[in-house]
Structures are given as C-alpha cells and as structure tokens.
Write a structure and sequence with these properties.
Elements lengths: L7 E2 L2 E8 L9 E9 L2 E7 H7 E2 L3 E11 L1 E6 L15 H16 L2 H17 L2 E6 L4 H11 L2 E8 L10 H14 L6 E7 L7 H14 L3 E5 L3 H11 L3 H7 L7 E5 L5 H10 L2 E4 L1 H6 L7 H6 L3 E4 L12 H16 L7 H7 L2 H6 L17 E5 L11 H8 L5 E6 L2 E5 L2 E2 L4 H16 L1
Parallel strand pairs: 1-5, 2-6, 7-8, 8-9, 9-10, 11-12, 12-13, 13-14
Antiparallel strand pairs: 2-3, 3-4, 6-15, 15-16, 16-17, 17-18
Amino acid sequence: MPANSPVETVDTIINACWIVPVVPNNQLLTDHSLVVHDGKIKAILPTEKVVQRYCSDRVVDCSAHLLIPGLVNSHTHAPMSLMRGLADDLPLQTWLEDHIWPAEQAHVSTEFVAAGSRLAIAEMICSGTTCFADMYFFPNITASIAEQAGMRAVIGLVLIDFPNSWAATPEEHLRLGLQLHDQYVSSPLITTQFAPHSAYTVSDQWLEQVATPAEELDLPITIHIHETAAEVEQSQTQHKMRPLERISQLGLLSSRLQAVHATQLLPDEIETLAQHGASVVHCPQSNMKLASGACPVNQLLNSGVNVSLGTDGAASNNNLNMVEEMRCAGLLGKLTANDAAALPAHTLLEMATINGARALGLDQQIGSLEPGKAADITAIRLDTLHTVPVFDPLSALIYASGRDNVTDVWVAGRQLLKDGELLTLHPPTLIKQTAQWRRQLQS
C-alpha cells in the first residue's frame, strides 16, 4: 500500500483469534480480521494490516473466538418447534400418523406457524445458523417472519396430496407456491424451492409437474426420500420400483435435487446420485431418534455426492442446534463407516456451510468467508472451561463446544446476536407465547 494512502472507512471490523473461511478447503487463519461493508465481506487480512487500511465505528473484539461462515440448516420444519417433545420414542410412521398429523389437522393455522417460526428462528440464530431451508404449511408466514428477523431462508413451496389448512388440493399447493415465489423473487434474504413432501405422499401426476417449473425458474427441489426401510418396501409393493428410481422416471433426478434423509441407499443408487450431481441432506439426530437408519455419508462423499446437514424439525430432533448436529454427524459417520478417520472436522464444517449452500443453490452468495460474498458470520468463543486447551480450533468447535459458545451472529452484515443476546427477537415473549400453544396442543 503506497505511503500516505487514505484509510478506508467501513461498516464493521471483526478482529478474531482464528478464522476458518471454509474456502479454500481446510484453511486456518490466525490473528486475522474480517472487514464488512454494505452487507458483504470486503477483506480478510492479518489484523496488523487491517489496522493500516481500514477504520470503523464498529470494531468487534473476538480475540478469544473462532469465526466461521454462518451455519446452513439444509432441512427443517420451523413451525414444528411448537411440537417439541409432543410424541417421543416412537417409530416414524406411528409418530406421524398417530400423533403429528392429527395434531396438525387440529391446530395448524397462520397463528401457529407464526409462533413456531419465531421460536425456531430465535433458536437457530442463538446456535449459529444464518440460513435455513424450510418445508411446512403456510410458507408465506414463515418467509415473512424470517425476513422480519433478518434471517436468510429458503422457503419450500410445499406439495402434498392431502388437503390441509394451507391448501385443499395439489393444484392449489402449486398455485399458492408459485405466487409466493413471485412475491419474493427480488428479496435479498428469501429464496424458494419446490418441496414435494415425499414419494409416498405425492402421486406421480404431481411429482411429474414439479420438474418443468423447477427448471424454468431455476429452483432446487427438496423431498424426503429413502428415509426408512418401510418406505422403500411400500414403494416396491405399490410401484414395483424403489423411490429413487420412481422419481427419476418422473424427471426429478438432477443437480437440483436434494434427497433428504436417504438412509436406505444401495451402492448403485449412490452412483446414480453422483452421476446426476444431486445432493443428500443428512439429518443424523432425527434419524437416530426415530430409528430410521443411518445415511451412508462416507460412501456418498467418497463417490462425489454433495452432502449437507439439516436438523429436521424440533418435533423429531428435539432441537435445531447445528453445532450439535455436526458433532453427531461426525460420531455416527465414523461408527457406520467403521473408520475413525471418516468425516474429519473440516469435512463436517463444510457439510454445515458450503455444502448446504451448494445444495440450496446459494454457494455463490454464502457458505464460505470470501471477499464479495454476503457477510453471514458466526463467532464461537473457545476460551471456556469445556473447550480449553485449544490445540485445534476446529476440533474444539466440533467435539467440545456447544450452542452456548456461540456469541455473535451476522446475516448480510446485520448483527442478529450480540454477546449472546438476540437483537431482532424477544425471548420472554416467545416463551410466553409457546406456553399458550403448549396448553392448546395438550387440550
């Protein structure tokens, strides 16, 4: 930099002990600063150089922290946070058919979705998530709540054969979904994707109708598939083929596809997903809790499949904590692969950041800390009793830290969590509203 060059004024400077940008792969920066301006990352430089080049009225001291890209929750059902613990210790079909679907039929409304979305978004911000992909009824309400809170969201344009309080027919689901897409087409925070619920709740006619508009609008497609052995068996009985083959014949298998759960995959199906450039969304805690099976993550990654992480809904997890999800994914992945070297810490962070962004079609905007990308940032404090000594910050993040270590979160440069305090949502109000819904759901 030439002598006497003017110092540039920027919005925010974050001085950190460590930064893991994720891209380039497996890089750790020590004593660096992240410069934010106009909602984007302007520079990442050694702190001593940033002081010489930039100044700001907002200089954040993260001298005991690790900075990472904001976590991307690639699959959840945000409003179902109001059903946390409603029906535990049950297999998937019993859980759904005897408990969750009847409760939804009786209680889901715009008010339910608004309260559940606020609760979920608050929890996700507090545990370092800056972007979530949602699949639920009244997606317009969840989109509005996310935007108000300053949260980035990919809202599912839900499609299901069954009538519900959001839409009476599959045709109405598609019509309302496309209206929602048009409403948010220019939003800086809200994007959309097609979200047929599953291969067993959407008929051939309507699954087939998703492929063309998805291509025309350049939207991803997310679907629960190969979640349980019972689902696969039912498909073979009813359709004479496994679910992945069926949706492939209907035109859904492409690089747009996110196969959610995917615990029941044969080797040739893994290769098929890789050949088509499809993504798999791994939800380890939900799958373990419902005893649905284990996604073969190591084999998928070794075959070149993009694998991201999701929490699923709080009704089957029972939290939306992506820090914990990374750890569970790592431990389960090592166990199922029978290989302690499987899914190292840097791979787990990639699954929770850039891989999620890639699956959602947002990897040019988020998922890594790179100049020009959106300033979606999470700061994790690592000088706590349960994280020291820190030999490797990524190891401390994955295997020792928890949601309480998350102190600060920014989305598009706007701070949503400061020193552990939510800035755009009010926890006492959320807790009070949730108590009212608990009473209703119990009645």
